[in-house]
Write a structure and sequence with these properties.
Blueprint: E1 2-8, H1 16-25, E2 29-37, E3 48-54, H2 59-73, E4 80-84, H3 89-96, E5 101-106, H4 115-129, E6 134-137, H5 140-146, E7 152-154, E8 172-177, H6 185-199, E9 205-210, H7 217-227, E10 234-238, H8 246-251, E11 254-257, H9 263-266, H10 271-278, E12 283-286, H11 289-294, E13 300-303, H12 307-320, H13 326-332, H14 338-341
């Protein structure tokens, strides 16, 4: 059995991509997963040995500890080392273990709001890729933005089938699942409000929002919903564990894949776009480069990041509701499953 070492800053089980890589590769590879111990509940997986690194001490102390621990695990040059980009550490390991086969994996560019900070971080990331023969990137558009499309292999984002129920569209029940930080989900609530006032007597409507953020965004959306007279119609539930999401994907029939239209979000695939489609749900998605690749006339509508355009998108869904075929939407999205990708 071949040896695979995966290095990730996220604690094992809390970064979906590498967790799924382990899930679908653990019968073919002997996997060692090296990660921080963030103090979260430990998740176990048969066939995966997890090496946790303490975060005690200041940044220099704990970074040195992580580097030393990882070096101690990389002893056989025949091992494949798959490392999610880790500032300083990924490059140091590559230079200190030059005979190992390293794969540098890039899941995101900088999403900092300050463009000069973004450019600095992206430039540093591009520089570090020069030392790696093998680089994987989450999307073609991100590879092009970073200027490494000539050497990068695209390792895309995936998803699982959360709901297997086929949806009907006599009513419209919207679902947003994801972070509320820097996503401007209040814009969608304002757009929904306009649509609700116009169509509430024609069709049953609801909007369920699941997620939270560091700046009390959950309460802010609850307050907004109340002020707009949407209490009981717009349900802001806060964080729900992934294992408990199925009931909401079963009950809702329209997915909201909403990220602001900025250059730094434009090249980031949205996990929930795939999860909605694989659950047989048409999506209302902002027209980012990555959403444009997967959202078609048959499985949703693309909108701008304004309340007025979200309202227009809802109108388009309402007018097309008898055309959507839940089972076809799911079957045509199967290429985006983790099983297919890994």
């Amino acid at each position: 059995m071949k040896n695979l070492r995966i290095i990730d800053q996220a604690q094992f089980g809390y970064h979906t991509d590498n967790f799924k890589h382990c899930e679908y590769l653990n019968e073919e590879y002997e996997i060692t997963f090296i990660c921080w111990d963030h103090g979260l509940p430990k998740i176990e997986m048969t066939g995966v040995r997890v090496v946790y690194v303490s975060r005690r001490g200041n940044m220099v102390v704990r970074t040195w500890r992580f580097l030393r621990t990882a070096l101690g695990q990389l002893k056989d040059s025949r091992e494949i080392v798959f490392i999610k980009y880790f500032k300083v550490v990924s490059l140091a390991l590559r230079l200190l273990r030059p005979k190992h086969l390293f794969v540098l994996d890039i899941r995101t560019g900088s999403v900092h709001k300050n463009k000069f900070v973004r450019r600095f971080h992206d430039a540093r990331l591009k520089f570090e890729t020069l030392f790696f023969k093998h680089v994987t990137v989450i999307s073609q558009s991100l590879a092009e933005k970073l200027g490494i499309a000539h050497k990068a292999h695209i390792l895309p984002l995936g998803a699982d089938v959360i709901s297997s129920t086929n949806k009907s569209f006599e009513s419209l029940h919207l679902l947003y699942v994801g972070t509320l930080f820097n996503r401007n989900i209040d814009v969608t609530v304002h757009g929904f409000k306009k649509f609700y006032d116009e169509f509430k007597d024609q069709i049953s409507l609801s909007y369920t929002i699941i997620g939270d953020g560091p700046n009390n965004e959950t309460q802010g959306l609850r307050t907004l919903s109340s002020e707009l007279g949407l209490s009981g119609v717009v349900k802001v539930l806060g964080r729900i564990p992934h294992t408990e999401l199925k009931q909401y994907f079963d009950a809702c029939n329209i997915g909201v894949s909403y990220v602001p239209m900025t250059d730094y979000y434009d090249c980031q695939p949205v996990t929930k776009t795939f999860e909605y489609l694989l659950s047989g749900m048409p999506v209302i998605a902002t027209a980012t480069s990555e959403n444009k690749i997967v959202v078609t006339l048959e499985n949703g509508v693309l909108v701008d990041d304004t309340a007025e355009d979200f309202y227009s998108g809802l109108k388009a869904v309402f007018e097309k509701r008898h055309v959507f075929d839940s089972s076809k939407i799911r079957s045509r999205a199967m290429e985006y499953t983790w099983a297919a990708i890994v």
